[in-house]
Amino acid sequence: MLRGWVDTSAAASWWSAVAPGPPARPSQSLVLVRSAARRGTITGIWSWRGSVRSADFDGDVVTVHRVDGSAHRHRPIGDDWAIDLAAGATSAVVLGRGMAAESSDRSTTERGSDAPTARARALSLPFRTILGAAHYRRSEQSWEEAGKPTCVVSIERSGERLVVRVDVPRAERRFAPIEAENPFDNDPAAIHGDGVQLYVAAGEHASGWLLVPIPGSTEVARRRADGWSGTLPIEASWQPSADGYSLVASVALPTGGAEADVDVLVNEIAPGRSRRRGQLVLSGAHGEFVYLRADRHDRERLLRFALGDR
Fold this sequence. Notes:
Blueprint: E1 3-8, E2 13-19, E3 28-34, E4 42-47, E5 52-58, E6 61-66, E7 71-77, E8 80-84, E9 93-95, H1 102-111, E10 127-131, E11 136-138, E12 151-158, E13 161-168, E14 195-202, E15 205-213, E16 220-224, E17 234-240, E18 245-252, E19 259-268, E20 278-281, E21 303-306
Antiparallel strand pairs: 1-4, 2-3, 5-6, 6-7, 7-8, 8-9, 10-12, 11-20, 12-13, 13-18, 14-15, 14-19, 15-16, 17-18, 19-20, 19-21
């Protein structure tokens, strides 16, 4: 059941119309909002499944009241968009504009620089976000055709360690042994099952790992990612969830640093496949394909986080 709410910052008029539908489908009705103001905003809330009860608009802040009694507060934060999932929440889902720095990132990559691309503003911790369509690096199937895979990535600081948690709600839990041989090409076989690629750069250290849960235990096997060091100490564990799994990695940080760069890639596979179907990329997929990437990753892609007080 589609429901919607619209608010305008200036006087507006509403128009209803009937337009041709998709091929072989009847005509479709629609509603248009028109404002003659020189500047302003039109804000809309749409619920395709009827899960929203009402919406409150207060300037740039939108509070969405759901039928289950919860309330989500949407608000701008710098160039990004934050969603507070509960009243008084100390952390938020942050939806970043992944394409904003693409041109500067590409020029740095083409010059062959090993230094991370400077960003205007580091993200704050704790951090939590949901990866979906904009983060899906595909193979043959699009994100929709692949069943809309998703996961939740949370990052926080705990003393001298950076803690990264990945919650995958739906997964085959097909974990390839970390040292298994790949009969098809030179890629590590373990990337072609479920698992996580984690990259952390802090100070002079830039470490990357392929992390694969070991079935029947809480342990996680790891392999140093191609082109990255393993100098930052890491501990990892995992546990199954109802239809997926959760993985937690804790990385020891060098002393004295104020920032760290992080990226998380989540590989996923489907029944009947011998190779991964795609992967969710924290820094954004940018329309890319997953083929022949193995576990290589550009340092310039990592997102920068302010570590805050120790």
